[in-house]
Amino acid sequence: MTKSTENALHDCETQMHQPSVINQISELRKHLSNIRRQSKTIALVPTMGALHQGHLSLIQTAHQHADCVVASIFVNPTQFGVGEDFDSYPRTEQEDIEKLASEGVDCIFIPSAKEMYPTGFCSSVDLQGPARELETSHRPHFFSGVATVVTKLLLSVMPDTAIFGEKDYQQLQVIKQFTRDLNIPVKIIGAPTLRETDGLAMSSRNAYLSPAERKIAAQLYAQLVNCEADLSKNQSWQEVQRKAITNLTQIGFEVDYLELRDSQTLNLPIIGNQRRLLVAAKLGKTRLIDNIHIPAAS
After folding, report:
1. Catalytic residue ranges
2. CA distance 215 to 219
3. pTM for the whole thing?
4. Is the dihedral of CA 285, 289, 290, 295 positive or negative?
């Protein structure tokens, strides 16, 4: 085989693996209807872009559950409140497209705000249940914005499955709840949190941390692990919570919450049920969240 033939074959293969980049819902539905006619299953991975390895692990999980993977990139304005980081949220669209292409994504949906919220848009998804407290106590607008945009994405794609990361654990439980409540025919799959080598949960917002803050940030996860160890020794939750918040505060965190909840309902835990330990805290101007599984109390 000549060098020119090898290059031609390589170019052909590269071209075959380029995902379709689509900006309009009507075009997206038309594209996906062709895929369904081939009896292929579809998985959706919604993102806000600024992709890191944690996002790409969601894509890899999606490939395990469907023939075709659709990724969306949309920084959703309705989940940001006044004074939050909507304008400064990192946007790296071209790099994101390249990363998604390297993971074999079939289609990338990148709508504008006007496409998702056209003139006259006045609807939203209202939530209770797992949406109460925790994040809602500090960001009351957040889950309505998330639920509304996720509903629109699910109805635009109509995937068989959708993949969300467990790092945003309350969000995951909220999405599972409202898709059941609204009879949206999709299976919601939670994928494990990917961490840096020092334990910090991967997040696009980690880019906001200064070098000094970055060294401290890993202590958020370390304190969760310490809490788990203390709880396994039958120490009271009140004492474990007090100690962890004190430790985090002393090293520079401003703790919004550190709570132990039922892993499914996010209500206060019941003896015999699996539990989840969830934390949100600011370090400088950066707000970090994390969570870990805690075995049921005996």
Report:
1. 55
2. 8
3. 0.92
4. positive
Longest dimension (CA), the chain: 72
CA separation for the pair 100, 84 (Å, rounded): 27
Q: Per-residue pLDDT for the chain (298 aa), expressed as one digit of tens each? A: 444 444 444 444 444 469 999 999 999 999 999 999 999 999 999 999 999 999 999 999 999 999 999 999 999 999 999 999 999 999 999 999 999 999 999 999 999 999 999 999 999 999 999 999 999 999 999 999 999 999 999 999 999 999 999 999 999 999 999 999 999 999 999 999 999 999 999 999 999 999 999 999 999 999 999 999 999 999 999 999 999 999 999 999 999 999 999 999 999 999 899 999 999 999 999 999 999 999 998 7
Domains and CATH numbers, the chain: 16-191 (3.40.50.620), 204-292 (3.30.1300.10)
Angle between helices 25-36 and 142-157 (to 10 degrees): 50
Contact 248, 281 (CB under 8 A): yes
By the 10 Å C-beta count (0-12 exposed, 13-18 middle, 19+ buried), 98 is classed as exposed
Q: Which segments within the chain are labelled E, that is strand?
A: 20-22, 42-47, 68-73, 107-109, 161-165, 187-191, 253-262, 275-283, 286-294
63 Cβ partners below 8 Å, 6+ apart? 43, 69, 103, 104
Q: Residue 3: in which H helix or E strand, if any?
A: helix 3-16
CB 139 within 8 A of CB 81: yes
Reduced to 3 states (helix: H, G, I; strand: E, B; else coil), residue 243 is helix
Q: What SS3 class is residue 117?
A: coil
Tell me if 45 sits within 8 A of 70, measured CB to CB: yes
